[in-house]
Amino acid sequence: MAAYKQFNSQDIIISPLQLTKGFYYKGGGTLATASLSISSSNQYTGSNYYSIERYLGNPFNLSGSTGYNFKITSSDAYNSVKQLYYTNYISSSNGDVQPMNTASFAVDGTIQGRVGSNAYVNYDQTDLIPYKYFPTSSYHALTPSQNGSIYGKAIYGVDKYSISVVEPTVAVMSIPQQLYGDQIMPGSLKITCPSGSYFDDGEGRLKRQNNFNSSSIYVGNIIYQHGIIIFTGGSRNEVTGEFSKYGDAEYGDDTYGGRLVGANDVADFALSNNVTASFSSSFTIYETQYKATISEDEFNYSQNPTIISGSSNTGIYKTFATSSFFSPYVTAVGMYNEANELLAVGKLAQPLPTSQTTDTTILINIDRQ
């Protein structure tokens, strides 16, 4: 016996469901994990489809490539993040949005003054000060003496013999959407490389952790919904409280409080062969709930062939199945389209008897992205 019942609009409820998943990556060039793989074609292969890319951006390096599986020029990496995330902050000195340039419109239609310059959408992640520092020009830095510490602490300018020019560089870490889903969960990101440890403050700001005194300084930004982490070095005027081999003594000041963050840290973030990164991702799936209601006078016959009497399946039900007290059991619910084609089957954990006095409701949940 065919048994179909049409769903009405009030029988179907679609609800979004937020899920989170944690990832831990460790590697050299690309950060990859052996626990994930995918079969695909072209440049997307099982080994690199879920890998985290890193880029070193330099506006003056127009031909040199950066990245590992998916290479771009170093200048493109620099200019891309500058245009997308920092255009409103270029001329600011405190990491906040720059003052608005305004123009005057005369009655004759002429315009005087500069056109507004901070009307860009820079995907700000916080209502607080975003600390979006971005290096835009070369600067001078003291060079360590060959006879002193090869990395130099520049304590009061000791062991320095010359000045070098440091080009503006930024490091970019790009997480594929297959991993971060809707967004990186704010506050979940942690990155460790030889030059230091970094964490997300939950407001889209990357901070450098000082493990000696638990202090921290701003060194970059996180764009949660794009899976992008940008290491700019921050203001590069704040001391870290650390004395390590990565010190450049850039600007040559304040080094009595520890070295400054500089070009070596940027390069280490983008190029180091020993980097770990952990984060949680947010995925939205949609749960569709179908409410199948069996009225007391519906589905009173069983489709189990064992209740048919005789070996030739004559269609005669056994006596007990024709009694007014007989109640069949529901073991599965089939979902059909308009052409009566079976699309899905929902199995019950145990057989459910139908009621002869009240309605019986079965809920079927289907999850989808």
Short note summarizing the structure:
7% of the residues lie in helices and 35% in strands.
Key terms for this structure?
7% helix; 35% strand; 369 residues; 3 helices; 2 domains; elongated; mainly beta
Model description:
With 369 residues, this protein is mainly β. It has two domains: 9-14 and 285-368, no CATH class; 19-87 and 122-283, no CATH class. Helix content is 7%, strand content 35%. The protein has three helices and 20 strands. Strands 1, 2, 3, 10, 11, 12, 13, 14, 15, 16, 17 and 20 form a twelve-stranded antiparallel beta sheet that branches. Strands 4-5 form a two-stranded antiparallel sheet. A hairpin with a 4-residue loop joins strand 15 and strand 16. The longest helix has 13 residues, at 74-86. The protein is elongated, with a radius of gyration of 32 Å. The two termini are 35 Å apart.
Mean pLDDT: 78
Spans with pLDDT under 50 lasting ≥5 residues? 33-48, 144-161, 245-256
Oligomeric grouping of the chains: single chain
How many distinct beta strands? 20
Number of domains: 2
Which structural class is indicated by helix and strand composition?
mainly beta
* Strand residue content: 25-35%
> How is the main sheet built?
12 strands, antiparallel
Number of helix segments? 3
- Using only C-alpha atoms, the radius of gyration works out to 32 Å
- Shape, please? elongated
Distance between the termini: 35 Å
Write the H/E string, N to C. EEEEEHEEEEEHEEEEEEHEEEE
- The helicity comes to under 10%
